[in-house]
Amino acid sequence: MKGGKSKTDTKGDARLAVKKGAAAKKGKPAKDPNKPKRPPSAFFVFMEDFRVQYKQKHPNNKSVAIVGKAGGEKWKSLSEAEKAPYVQKAEKRKADYEKNMSAYNKKLAGGPEEEPEDESDKSKSEVNDEDDGDDSGEVIEPDRGSI
User: Fold this and answer.
1) How many Cβ atoms from other residues are within 10 Å of residue 13's Cβ?
2) If exposure means fewest CB atoms within 10 Å of the residue's CB, which of 34, 55, 67, 95 is most exposed?
3) Is the whole-model pTM more than 0.85?
4) Whether pLDDT at 11 is above 70
5) CA geometry: angle 98, 104, 108, nearest 5 deg
6) Please, are residues 77 and 45 in contact by the beta-carbon 8 Å criterion?
7) Per-residue pLDDT tens over the stretch 27-57
8) How many CA atoms within 13 Å lie on the side-chain side of 115?
9) Residue 80 and residue 78: Cα distance in Å, rounded?
10) Average pLDDT value for residue range 124-141
11) Do 68 and 51 contact (CB within 8 A), yes or no?
12) DSSP assignment, residue 146?
């Protein structure tokens, strides 16, 4: 076969492509542990309560999948009025999340941070005066070399 690629050449290219993709994922930046977690949807708020109820009725069940399926079926069977409390809780959590995210983004951008006030009785000027007392009055000039 002159001038054409053989089947083995294309297989080699496929293997290389996989390796390149895997290497690209390694460069992904790490997640910030201080970033607020996204709020749960109304369904997940419902599932928090449902898991507790289901566990009380079925204490021997260890399967997460069965609980999830039963919760999904129950959620589908609920009317809008029955879902309303869960929707309200989810909206409240979303509002809290948005407030936390705005504070987080301000902190990242270097905006004005709200620092807790010092609990000490000394004013900041008194604290600065104490720091100044440690100096021996000696002035050290940098080495300028051959200027």
Assistant:
1) 9
2) 34
3) no
4) no
5) 140
6) no
7) 788 888 889 999 999 999 999 999 999 999 9
8) 6
9) 7
10) 54
11) no
12) -
